[in-house]
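Retro notes, structure queue

What went well: the backlog is down to a handful. What didn't: a couple of records were mislabeled last round, so from now on we paste the full input next to the output in the thread. Example, using DNA topoisomerase from Dimorphilus gyrociliatus:
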Amino acid sequence: MLIRFITCLRSYSSAAYGKMPRVLNVAEKNDAAKSLAAMLSKGHCRRRDGLSKYNKIYEFEYNLFNTPSTMIMTSVSGHLLTWEFTPQFTNWRSCNPVQLFTAPVYKKCPPDFEGIKKTLEREVRNCDKLVVWTDCDREGENIGFEVIEVCKKVKPNIPVYRAKFSEITAGAVHRAINNLIAPDEFTNAAVDVRSELDLRIGAAFTRFQTLRLQSAFPQSLGGDNNQLISYGSCQFPTLGFVVERYKQVEDFVPEPFWKIRVTHENDGSSVDFSWKRNRLFDYDLCLALYEQCIEVPIANVTDVRTRPKSKWRPVALDTVELEKLASRKLRINAKETMKIAEKLYTKGFISYPRTETNIFPKDLKFNDLIQQQTRNPNWGEFASRLLMDGANPRNGRKTDQAHPPIHPTKYADSLQGNEARVYEFVVRRFLACCSKDAQGFETTVDIEVNKELFTAQGLMITERNYLEVYPYDNWSDKTLPVYNVNVTHFYSVYLLIYHEFTSVTNILQDSFEPKSIDLVDGSTTAPPLLTEADLIALMEKHGIGTDATHAEHIETIKSRLYVGLRENKFVPGELGMGLVEGYDSMGFEMSKPHLRSELEADLKAICERRKNKDEVLQEQITKYKSVFEEAFRQASKLDNALACYFGSAQEVREQDYIPEVVEKILTCPACSSDMVLKKKKDNKGWFISCVAFPNCKTVCWLPSSVLEAKVTNDICDRCHSTKLMQFKFRQGTAPMHMQPIYNGCVVCDNELKDTLNFRLSESTVISPPNARNIATPVQSVRSSQQSRGSSSTTDRTRTVYPKTDLKSERSHGMRSFLGAQNASQNFGNVSDTVVCNCETDAKLVEVKKEGPNKGRKFYTCSTSNCRFFLWADEPKSSTQNDQVKCKCPAIAKKLTCKNGQNKGRPFAACPNDKCGFFEWQDTDSSQSHNQPSSQGFQSQSFQSQTQSRKPSMIGRSKKNYSGNTTQIQQSSGEDRRCACGEVAILKVVSKNNANKGRQFYSCPKRSCNFFEWIDEKGDNDNNLDDSVTRSAKKRKCGYCNEQGHDRRNCPRKT
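Corresponding output:
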């Protein structure tokens, strides 16, 4: 105990001083994390809470890579991120469903899992390595990459490892951590392709079906019912199997048949001989043959055959067999079975339950596993005999190269209910698989009755073997008397063997008189309706879903009321029947498995590195999109099919339920997504924005002088990339030579751009990782302008469009979310409408509060989104022209300096204190302390360049001049800029020291530590001096004097 205490004390001491590496381990579920931590720590782990109450954190010490390390074990709860459309496409009526095949998508963390995500972000900051312990199948690999994505956002260079295991046992877990590998990006790519396709295909068809059919059948599907009519590329073929079998049953016409049966009875033993013709569908012919038999009713034995017979033991258990047999034998549905199996796996009682493998690995320790089961009172004796004989498992032919077949890993005697039943089935199946085949003898007797042949079979079991422990198979004795063939005084060898093992002692001659010869009638019967086991077998056969998703797809069609259960057999509902019949009438085989099975084959090819994920994605999108467009054109056939079940359909016009397709105008210069024309929420104006909003905030507000705007189908013949637009202007607002209705290109038509005050440049992009159709994040870098209201020409503004007239193009700023000017200011002569900062018409309000302004009217924002304010009795032109905008954008508040050398000087500042805007009002704006940001944005390359040029302080630390300097007005000429792109402030030292009176430049926002003496400024016009551009040294901790942290989170503090 003392040694253990000292060891733990040393471990804690090492961790406290930061000497021990920290490793973040992430499992797929909390139960798995708890079990893994207990096994790796040998029961000595410490538990603490995470930011999600369902996902705990376990800490312990472990020797990883021969290095003592602190292990942090936590978990997620399945998928951490899900594919989503950008907000532009989430509203069902915001776009045409066909656009969902190409709309931008990105991965998003659902609100319920934000706590888990924040836990990972918090923990990984202080960790040196990441180990992924998610389940080792396709979905588990994808979940692991979601964990990696979240962690690498916080710590991009953290090393990542993957633990491969198939059971949560001490041996398997230690083997996994000692043989860590790299995550499989190809398996992850296959799941990403599948999940993105499921989103696009499902959303497009679901919206189309729901909106169309709710409008066509409002009483049955719309109104209060509000029936969601979903579509899935797996659930629809699954529904198709049920409908196809139901139709086979309904359309089946029974056909009568007849057959002859011979019965022989001796000493209470009855044998039925079946006709070798089986049956005839012609009554007269069968009657004639029957009468022929009864004319001479003597049966002659023509042949007796006796041969050994074996019943094979079952092969190793995979997921599909588990689902089918649990449904048939245990009467537990597939979804519940997999839920129970997951629990048993997490507790360490069985191996991983989602596997396509039925071949045991050669290194599996069968004797150890069988030995564990000898304690059981029901099958323990059989397990003991099996150990003596030796295990001889029977393997199948399938393997996924990932997991072994399902088998018990630990003995359990405390389970209850269905958990105990499923565990018992897994154990008995494993023992039966390792045992021997059942043995017996089969006897076949052939007889002749007046030239008509009949046969009978009997069975005698000699060794039951696996049947002793596996009651789920039936093989029973069927005793026959011993028949003699053409011999009276001796018997064949086979008959002697048979006689040796039978209790029948009487020996019959070569002929006998049957007890009866009957003419039996019957009729053909329809195939049975599908059970759950039958449906799973069909899904596996045709490649619909995977072993892990079969149960989910079945539950989906049940929850949507597409199918129901009748005596545990599936029958389609009216809605399910109508949908399948409707699509079938269009000539599509959407209810058939071909499309989905092709996709599953492609996904397997991606995992095996035989196909590229982008090629598969594009190919499948093109295929399903063409089917969707054709289905959309033939939508009336869907109405007609459902009318058979819900009554006549109402006439539906396309424009009543499907929004128009939003046509692309041009490509967004920031993220390469589409820019489209939209109406404002109040329908009183127009704007052109990127479809990737809010991840990309590129937007251009059209002035209020534009009454109507629309996108034409014509492409500009000058820039060859932009669609021409048609504008209708308010009378008197367009130039005299321009028609009231004008067609033009917003990219290269400079006259139109001047009228609209339109200039395309890039705006802020906040793109989620791994987003499709969304560019890499590009952050905006605010550059200074020469003066408020004047043009800004900067070589940092980048555009992807052909340059026409650069001077004209830069003379008009683009309305973006960053410092955009009000469109109405440029069209003040058009209307008396007052427009607020967020480009909406301001509302007129009267002051009701007691005071000097009571009864006075003022304008304010109608949506309360900005802090716009304007007295109504002040001249609009002079007042609005006198307004100063800060960077938010908002109307800056005007104040007067009350203290210091600048007492009495007016200045403008941000009303929200968000952007740090400041500007003196009694000087030219070019000399202000802080300039408005340029409209547009800088490229990421420029941002990284400016960030890397942070200068170090020269001579003295900056804090020596804090409060001991005086700002002076800069002389006219070229501005000096700091490292963050702002116009540097010119100050003079006022403190009594050697530098008193000396002038220097500094950053106006104190954000980049820029500093430069003016008398040391070189002749280089814009470049910083080498000594100035040196990178600042990293700050050191005030407690331990080491870099990388500060004294607040110093690991050496106790």
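Agreed that this is the format going forward. Reviewer comment attached to the example: The domain at 2-183 is CATH 3.40.50.140 (Rossmann fold).
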